[in-house]
Amino acid sequence: MRTVIKQTELSFMATAKTKLSALDKLKKAANLTPIKKEVTLSNGEDFEFWCTPLTMAERERAQKIIKDKEDMNAFALTLFVQKATDENGQRLFQIGQMAELKNDVRDSDLQLLMLAVIQDIADDAEVLNTKKLKSS
What we know:
With 136 residues, the chain is mainly alpha-helical. It is 58% helix and 9% strand. The longest helix has 29 residues, at 107-135.
């Protein structure tokens, strides 16, 4: 038995192999490579760390760790501790060090560090809100 493929079927087959699925498109667009963050501390020194953009799974893990679901500082600190890494991808802090960070680090410095981690989230929300306003 011999199979005959029409010319129109060949072009469809070629594009089907190269076409990305919706999930593949989203994963490709995610670009989860670490980004260098630099924060100038109150004593004038720069603190460098790397972190990847936030994923839903990371947000959920942070929410599970905090006891008071309404405490945004605890949420932001948990994200900072979970996501801050060195240039080799090694975590800089452990969850057990959160109390020490709260008690022994200047609040203004800690706020800047936490903001550096969640800044991408705030930027994304601002872009989304701007797009909504323009389409109205």
